[in-house]
Amino acid sequence: MIAATISIERVGYAVVQDLGRPGLAKLGISANGAGDQVSARLANILVGNDEASALIEVISSEIVFATDADLLISVTGAARTVFIDDLPHCTHETLVVTAGSRVVIPGSDYGQRSYIGLNGQLQGNRILESVSPDNFLEFGQRLISGTKLQVQSNFGSEAIGSDFPVFRFSAPHETYSKMFHLTATIGPDITRLKKGEQIFEQDFEVLPQSDHVGMRLIGTGLDLGVTSEILSRGVPIGAVEVPPSGELIILLRGRLVTAGYPVVAVLTKGSIDKVSQARPGDHISISVIDMAKAQSELQEVESKIASTKTRVGNAFKSRGWEALLSY
């Protein structure tokens, strides 16, 4: 195993990230983790890592870095091009970066979250077995110019060899625009709206006040027919709330585990990943589907991820790269 050092030369906003801390809501701990979990999982799969491994999440900005050792990397999410020593490469593929090379990943005009998978173990401090940033725990590692990251990897060792073939996996990915079409199931408080169909009959604009806790949307004011208070209760990621202002709030992965606004819809799992890519000024529509359709959507996504994982695993094994696989 070799130790590689990644030197960040230029970056806007990026953090060391993973899939977060799911299942700890009963302790009052928010899940957090990568906003677009499917893209993060695929970034790790493409380099042979466990899906939950630490990686780099870049938000609405460019990142430039260099490495002092050979690395196997992938880039998924919003980014559309990767430049390695000024040569353009496709995203959503397995890429080789040789020692001394410079990698430039430009920011995207559409979507906002990109993920950089690095074969091996990206070193970072952990709380509750996760590197994921949490503002309430005052924890997390933001990358700045001059940051140096350590990666422990088997790639580039004598056991691997020195000739690096290029794989073309074409991992599944979304094509983003300024319009996001989401799906949701009906929420428990839909009857508090005078016209429940209002939420499904208009487009909403993403407001700048949005963050990893919740996305704020503005549309034609939603009229709450019932204004009595609601006791705070547990709320899921993806809950769509209507505060007294008549805006919408979509609760994201950094959300508090309880809330007291009416929940009029709950986004499907795939739409939670998708909406995390929306920028301020983008537009969102929400369509209602039943539970069976929501489960079918999820199964389709998971099937594509499993297929990619199988293809990557088989390709690595055919090359004698079993030492690079963590699955």
What does this structure look like?
The chain is of the alpha+beta class. The protein folds into two domains: 2-174 and 302-324, no CATH class; 179-289, Cyclophilin-like (Cyclophilin, Beta Barrel), CATH 2.40.100. It is 14% helix and 30% strand. It contains three helices and 21 strands. Helix 1 packs parallel to helix 3 (291-318). Pfam families: CT_A_B.
Please render the helix and strand layout as text:
Blueprint: E1 2-11, E2 14-17, H1 37-46, E3 55-59, E4 63-67, E5 71-77, E6 81-84, E7 87-90, E8 95-97, E9 102-105, E10 113-118, E11 121-122, E12 148-153, E13 179-186, E14 204-206, E15 214-218, E16 233-234, E17 239-241, E18 248-251, E19 258-259, E20 263-267, H2 269-275, E21 283-288, H3 291-318
Parallel strand pairs: 13-21
Antiparallel strand pairs: 1-4, 1-12, 2-3, 3-10, 4-9, 5-8, 5-10, 6-7, 6-9, 11-12, 13-20, 14-15, 14-21, 15-18, 16-19, 17-18, 17-20
Helix pairs in contact: 1-3
Give short descriptive properties of this protein.
Cyclophilin; 7-stranded antiparallel β-sheet; alpha+beta; 327 residues
Q: Rg from C-alpha positions?
A: 21 Å
How far apart, in Å, are the first and last alpha carbons? 17 Å
Count, helices: 3
Please state how the strands of the largest beta sheet are arranged side by side: 7-6-9-4-1-12-11
Oligomer: single chain
Number of DSSP strand runs = 21
Largest sheet geometry: 7 strands, antiparallel
Low-confidence stretches: none
Task: Give the count of structural domains.
Answer: 2
- Share of residues in helices: 10-25%
Overall average pLDDT: 93
The succession of helices and strands, N to C, reads: EEHEEEEEEEEEEEEEEEEEEHEH
Shape: elongated
What portion of residues belong to β-strands? 25-35%
Kindly name the structural category: alpha+beta
